[in-house]
Every structure is written in C-alpha cells, then in structure tokens.
UniProtKB/TrEMBL annotation:
Residues 237-248 have a biased composition (Polar residues). Residues 37-502 form the Major facilitator superfamily (MFS) profile domain. This is MOT14 protein. Residues 222-233 have a biased composition (Basic and acidic residues). The gene is Slc16a14.
Amino acid sequence: MYASREDIGYDFGDDSKVGSKPIKPNSNIDGGWAWMIVLSSFLVHILIMGSQMALGILNMEWLEEFNQSRGLTAWVSSLSMGITLIVGPFIGLFISMCGCRTTAIIGGILNALGWILSAYASNVHYLFLTFGVTAGIGSGMVYLPAVVMVGQYFQKRRALAQGLSTTGTGFGAFLMTALLKYLCTEFGWRNAMFIQGAISLNLCVCGALMRPLHPKDLREKHVVRSDSEENRAKALSHSTETIKSNGVLSEEPEKKEEAANEEVLGSVQHIEAGGKSVSGRSMYGLRILKTVSQLTLTVRKGFALWYSSYFGAASLFTNRVFVAFIIWALFAYSSFVIPFIHLPEIVKQYNLSRRDNVFPLTSIIAIVHIFGKVILGIISDLPCISTWNVFLMANFTLVTCILTLPLMQTYVGLAVVCALIGFSSGYFSLMPVVTEDLVGTKHLANAYGIIICANGISALFGPPFAGWIYDITQKYDFSFYIAGLLYMVGIIFLFIQPCIQKKQPREKSTEGAQV
C-alpha cells in the first residue's frame, strides 16, 4: 500500500524545482481563510447535493401534474444529478482558464436560472432542458471548485477539512426536504421552485468566498509536503526517472508563449505611455487590443494545461493507479444510490412499513453518513495512518454491506446494515484527498473532474439498471448482488495496481544489475 503519490512513482507537479530553502508557510494554509473555504464548500453541498437528495418531493408533484410514467419523470432528477458530475472534465477547463471563483459565480447564476425557468414548465420534456441540463451544468460549475479549493487551502488536515465540508450533503438532505415539502404545501410546486431559485443565488456568495491562493503560496504548500516526506522521496529516487520516461508537462513552450505575449503587451503599454500624440480613438483601440491579448493569454494557458492533463505526454491516463481509480468510480456511486432508491420497496415487501415510518432506514444512512465523513477524515489525518488504507477498508466494508443487505429480513438487521452503509460511505470525503495524492494539487481540478464524471455515469445508469433487473426477476436481491459484484471488481483494480506499480521498478533494477 502507499500513502501518497510519491510512493507510486507518479508526480505531475514541479515540486522538485522548488528550492530547499526554508520558507515560512502562508498562514491561510491549514488556518485563517482556509476555514472560510470550508464554510463555503459546506454551504455549496447543502444547496446543491442536499437539494438533489430532496428531489423526491418534487418528483411526486411532477407525476401528479404531468401524468407521465414514473420512468420518464424520474429521468428529470437523474439528469440533474448525473450532469452535475458528468460535466466535471469540462468544468476543469473553465477552472484552468478562469479560476475557481469566477467559475463558481457563473455556475451559481446558471443553477438559479435553471430552477426559475423550471417553474414555468409545461411538460416533462421542458424540465429535461431547464432543470436537468441547465441547473445540472450550473451545479457542476459550483461543486467542483468547492472541492478543489479545499484541497488547495489544506495540507496537514485535508481529510478532516473535506469531511467537514461534505457533511453539508447530509444536513442539506434534511433541510431541503423539509423546506421543499413546506413550500410545495403552502405555495405549490411552481412557486416552490421559483423560491428555491432565489435561494440558489447564494451559491454566488459561496463562490465569492473562494479567494484564490497566490502561486507563491501554492509553491510553499508543495515545499511543506516535500519536506515532510523527504525520507520516502530519497528512498524512492527511481520514481523521478519513471516520471521523466513517461513525460512531464513541458514548461519551456509555455514560457516562450508567455514571453511572446508579454512582448505584445509591453509594446502596447509602451505605445500607451507615449500616446499623448495619438488620437483618443486610437488609444481606445489599443486598450481593447491589450485586453484581448491578456484574455487570449489566459485562455491559451488554461487550455494548454487542460489539454496536456488529458492528452499530452504527461496525460493523467498514463498513471495506471489513476486509471484503476476511474474504473472503481464507474461502479462505486451506484452502489450507494441504489439503497436510497429501492429500500422503501424492500421494506414494503417485508411488511416493515410501520416501523420504517417511525424511523426510515434511508434517514439512518443519511445521519450516520455525516458522522462517517468526519470520523474517517480525522482517522486519515493521523500521522501513523495511511489515507489509502482507510479508503480501501471503508470500500470493503461498504461492498460487504451491499451484498448482505438482501439477506436481512428484520427491521433491526436492516437498520444495522444501513448504519454500516452510512458510516463506510463516508469515504466520499477522502476521494479528493486520494486524488490529490495521486496527481498533485496542480492537476486536482482536472483529475477530480474525471472521477466525478465517472460517478455521474454510475449515478445516471445504476438505478435504472437495478429497476430493469427487478422487472426481469421480480426481486431486488439480484440488483444488490450484481451491483456489489461490480463494485468488488472496481475495488480489486484499486488493490492490484499499486502492487504492480511497486513491482515494476524492482524488475527494472534487477535487469540493470544483470547487464
């Protein structure tokens, strides 16, 4: 097993170029404004993920209003949840060009617009476009920056910070369910969506709180990390050669492009300085040229970083462990969503509805899920504990619960399994930490965008697939068994790839000794 990306032999960052001089870390890293970033991310999870967990209230209203099939109407919620995650890689491009703050503010406006336009829906297909696509894309533009910013501001307590911020999903599920139920009862579902759109404008405030770190501060963060892991880096010096052989992001072309653009900007500024003899119209044109040049420089630089991350010599896909992580993500999220979708039907089949109405099993999952995120985050931040090992153990526990849940036919048995599902699924707070360990802070936005895209595909097709299995077998047991087995395949990929990655350098060194 390994604890960080240095152990694997993949480092897409340029930490080695930073000098070994002692640098005083920024006070905002692991403290100060970093906790405002956690608050901002917490509110984002309440407003976005919490609202999506409460869409069952609106789904009942849409069924009654439009008289469409349950399957067709359910696609509105599925599209919204799926697109929020699937657009991750493209949101990574926006972050590379515009930064997290601007991306989140634009996303907040787009999300609110989707809610407000949906209030005027005349049919379900209209909701596909306004709520599923428009609000879904807006949600994705806020969600990814909220996760990335926490990763940038924290080093020593990353897992705890991510755990605290993502607990907003659990709190939001309760708050938004109660709020939407009240608004629909008092004002009707159309006015409820209009009011929810106005509330969603607070996402712009959350985005405004995402103050970007200066590049110098990010370099200081890398120095802190490299100092704390210096001994392991020396022991694994062969990893540097592996990185070079696979290709590292070449910064020389970028520097040449920057120099060329700076020459253009410098010439424009020189003309402006001596522009007393130039007419006002010419000066206005020069200012436009300067603005366009700066915008072009920003866009080209951001696109180059985004493109190189996916298709360049140092593509994220050359990291085999990261590819295994993607395969895992394709199966993992549906295993968490399926119990939320099908537990009510299982309870009805076992004649446990009376006890479930007192304390619903889905509520048990949601409540314990909050504590699971925080506790697993605290454990992962302990110096003697590997985040990767905690992540794997939580996954093994969750897949075991998914496979054993159909065997439980009493309320107590189901409640115990649901509590374990809620606690072990707290590993979601560790996903950004593990991703950052694999690829580095510089590529976190693009890498995590790919991971949540895979989760989005899983969330989009997982529950309908489980329903299709039920239509064939007339039992939910096989839905859980198939989802659990596919999930187990993803976990095996995570377990095998680090072992292969460690074994390869040893084989190479043995061959060198023989020569």
